[in-house]
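Researcher: Let's try something more involved. This one mixes different molecule types, so please make sure each is placed in the same coordinate frame as the others.
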Amino acid sequence: MTTNWFSAPAPVARRVRGYFAPVNRVTQTPVLFDASEEGTFSLDAPPAPWISLGWIQGLTRKSVSKASPLLTGIPASTLEQVRETLEAQVSFQFLSWTKLTMALATGSQHMNLLAPATGAAAAALGAQATPAVVAQGGSTASSIALASADAAKFTAGSMVALDADYTGQTGFVGSPVAGAYVRTALTDVDYIRRITFNVALVSQVSSTGLTLAQPLLGGIPATGAKVQAVTGFVDREGGSFYQEWSALFVMEGSQGERIFFHYPRLQTLAGAEETVSPLDGKHQNGQARVMLKGQFLALPVTDPLDGERVVCYRSFLPAANALV
Amino acid sequence: MQNAKDSFYMALRTRLTGINPERTTLVRGALRPGILVEEAEAPFSQLPNDVFVLRWLGLGVDLDLGSAMAAAECEILYQTCGTQSFGGLDRGRALSAMDEELVAMLQPFHIPKLNYAATPPAAMLTQVFWDEPAIGPLVAQRDRLSRSAKVMVYSYQEQGE
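Model: All components are placed in one shared frame. Result:
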């Protein structure tokens, strides 16, 4: 009789793919991943709201939870174990520098360098910016409708940030991704556009607006949102804000099996740090790849199934025809 | 390992047809995609130009697993003299084109294993998989440019193999 199964050895995987989704900081609601429903997704097209950050390198998961023995008897021996602390850490290197990977790999808020106004005084986080222009109705996540005079201020190949004016609010600011926590009201009307994750590259400019090379993270712009040119990004060592994201790491094995590591709440653990990797191993002082190093602390969620507090879910979808 | 070797070759052949359908070769009167397995053809006095030739080298087996894993090293050789219409002055470009085709042919790095001894080929249970190629340096011999790349091809042994 022909068998229709095989005994699968340990998975063999080449690389790890990383996906992140914003935690709603105001309601403290993470994004949950269900491997039973979503586990077979195309690695290039993750289910919403997960955002692919591409391949990552050097993924290290470490449980630093502590357990203590409950001793009894003379001489004492362990009767039970009790979990004293629940903690896990994750670290890895991003293989790309983007707005999102930089933000994830910094210990504090991450800001957009808005294009400076003519003659503005220099400032570390970016000078006073060129005034923003209003996005018109009919804008979408990948196109911004503008008045023709406003559209003429942008060029293909430039970057833009799109979000609302800052009007003195405090607490978490930025939607759907909280980019900062404001303790006391500020005076910079562009502050939300400085910290927004709604940034994109402009691929085309026409008299009616901008076509974006990538969709905005926040989707369709809200009424009254404004656009400003961005020249780059900046972050700081210090500050009191911690990035917090839901994370999903996927290892796909050679036989199609998948291992998922799902952290509902990851906060950055350390300040910005880079890892340098020479392109040519024989030429250590030559060209080298500079990778962003991400170090995270996993925070707990309460599992609604049984009320247990957990920091990570590991799921495994075996290969087809593999014995389990 | 024969099923894995056959599956690997057929995968590359199918992919090459999609990448560059014009890369063909005439073998025993039949026009075929320009990729051959050396051990499955009459001995060559000299490797053909503008064709990928697969040469199977080392073999290793790991028996300490639920299913034994076999690894076979495949060397992929190719060479070109360029085209007559350019007097061979395009041989560098022709080799670059083959370099690009080679890298494209090898992706993705896995393929279902089939038994080509059956007609039609029978699907097996596991996947054949491999790693990035180790691409060798360019070798110039008068007007001929050649190169080879080595790929380690892995497969789990199934019942009956």
